[in-house]
Amino acid sequence: MNQKLALEDEILLLTKHLCAIASVSTDAGKENECAEFIFNYLSSIQPVSPLTIEADLIPCEKDPWNRKAVLGLLSSPDSQGRTVILTGHFDVVSTDVCGELKSQAFEPDLYTKLLQARSLNPEAKRDLDSGNWLFGRGVMDMKGGLALFLAIFKEYAESGCGVNLLFLAVPDEENSSAGMRGTIRKLNSFIKEKKLDVIAAFTGEPCFRTTPNASGQSFRPYYTGTTGKIMPFFYCVGKAAHVNDYFQGLSSVLLASEIVTKMEANPAFLEGQGNWLLSPPACLGFEIRRNGYSVTLPERAVCYFNLLTIEKTPQEILSLCVGLAQDAASSTLETLKTSEETFIRRGGTSSPLPKIKVLSYSELLNKVRSQFKDDKTFDRALKKELSSRQDSSDEREQAIRIIEAIISLSHSSEPQIVVGFLPPYYPPRINKRRNEKESRIKDLIHEVIAKSNHLACDSDSTFIEVFGGITDLSYLGYEGDPKDLQFIAENLPGWGETFWIPIQELTELSIPIANLGPSGKDAHKMTERLELDYSLRTAPELLRFAIKKLSKLQ
Description:
The chain has helices at residues 7-19, 28-44, 108-114, 122-130, 143-159, 178-181, 184-193, 252-263, 314-345, 361-369, 375-387, 395-410, 436-456, 482-491, 503-508, 532-551, and strands at 52-59, 68-75, 82-89, 133-135, 164-170, 197-203, 207-208, 220-223, 228-237, 282-288, 300-309, 357-360, 416-426, 461-464, 513-515, 519-521, 529-531. By secondary structure, the protein is of the alpha/beta class. Strands 1-2-5-3-6-15 form a six-stranded mixed sheet, sandwiched between helices. A five-stranded mixed sheet has the order 10-11-9-13-12, with helices on both faces. A hairpin with an 8-residue loop joins β1 (52-59) and β2 (68-75). α8 (252-263) packs across α9 (314-345) and α13 packs antiparallel against α16 (532-551). The radius of gyration is 26 Å and the shape is elongated. The two termini are 36 Å apart.
């Protein structure tokens, strides 16, 4: 891509080149191939004097697949250190939903053409027929945004810029954000080393075009915050018994199912309001923990939940979950009592109802640790216990096996529910105008929206406080009490090994955030697509406008 192209052609060509690299999350080879492509692109840019560019491939710290992120800095002597971060991810989700076209989905032109012969929903069909939408995996989530940022980075390098531009592209956002988490320390030290005053961070995540509302209007949302995510788990220990001796045991499945019934869609966990009301809890995993078939009552089961947050602290969430587990234990015993009464009336024999203990993971860990002579002895015993269990690359499974190993070391046979958190954890970010930088970026985004509607000749662009999904922007600063992160660490099995966040660096960063990417629809679906006219013409103008406004600060 050495030839000089118009900006919109550069963005489109970059998008297609990036999409052609099938960098599905956890395919380390392809993710690193994408990183290499981006690094080479940055390295090929020839900035005008006195601007300079430095680019680097950064190994993601503690990443088991040795993936790399890309860091590039365009330095402007008259910036006075003021720096704008342009960031995004280059991994994508799989194309399995595309069926027999899953390989062609990485070739946007071909894929768009092949979809002409497919049966699509009416909205997708209208967009396809309009010729204004490009279909394919990654076109909008989010290689179109990376292409926009790279092209603007190059444009400013060749024409001059009043601020520094710090470009950061990472792998693994679609999985557990190992890319961003593994880059934070390097990013923080780089900012300190270069004495950069980071005044804003823009992500190239797209404006997710909404489905038209009752009036027929759809929206392009812009936001200055991002949703937090936490994953409460409930590990249930029952009491084994032959199914013919049902009341002599306690089914962990009955216990876990009571929890799912009480937790799933529970309005007590709802946060937000209006157009940024978050979804309620959803169960993402429910499993009987044993190998193979058996007619013994399941002794152990686990369930865990996706929980989106904005303002609830981890302590508040765990407290709610512990209370819910206690209610589930009571409901379980009440169900057993009622059933057993009928059983006895029909000639069965009675058995005493068990007691069910509820405790947090940190309480379990401290209780079992105290049974050993010292921490080293406990750590050796835990390591030995874990070595006897089959390994897994899944972070949630790794954490669950740690729970099971600790329960095994406790030598306890009492029914219990252990409550804690599984990876990943994403801290929420919400702009409350706590300082000048936050106020400035929020005002700027409102100006961007007004300009967007003017340029696009519509009123579709709108402001939403927080992005309804999760993004790597969660890791560009922490707004809560640092003790909250420590609380997470204490209640997430395997913190520091199976999952980790550099707590000190996270609390040191305080960067106001916003999305300034292209526009698209149907992320992760077979009909993922990019709105071409807006993304190639309007979106670059908006990004230029924002950078120009920030470059004029005194």
